[in-house]
Amino acid sequence: MPGGPEGVRRAAASDAAALHRLSERFVRSGALRRRPPELYAARAGEFLVVDGPEGGAPVGCVALRTYREGVRRTDAVLYNFCVLADCQGTGVGSRLLTAALLEAAARSAAEVFTATTGGAELFLRCGFREVPAERAPQEWARALDPTRGSRVYARRPPALPH
Fold this sequence. Notes:
CATH architecture: 3-Layer(aba) Sandwich
Structural class: alpha+beta
Distance between the termini: 18 Å
Largest sheet: 7 strands, mixed
Low-confidence stretches: none
Helix content: 25-40%
Strand content: 25-35%
Order of helices and strands: EHHEEEHEHEHE
Mean pLDDT: 92
CATH topology: Aminopeptidase
């Protein structure tokens, strides 16, 4: 991605099967919601990925979707954020998160939201704070599964250089 962290690229529809395989590991552990393979193809443009060594399959991904809230406000939501266990702690997640925040800023998002059932260490280190779900985009917040016990986090996107 031009101007973004090295090694992060926008997904293409041809990445759909690999994104589904990567995500399924986290679905089985309960960390992610199950999404049909077709969704990854239909929403490929929302996904940012980091590929494995020598152009291998993606080892991490995150999706960013924007929501219009009223006439003047746009918010962004991060979803389907996952990094292979072998690559956690190597900067893959930080690069994906940085790229997603820059993309949210480029889209003029007022705030960036995410939900997690796990530890939120990376989000907290990157300036996110826990917030009530009611503060998030209504359409997205209503779709959260209350049985999963997700916590919602938010932060403002970074200022873009002029």
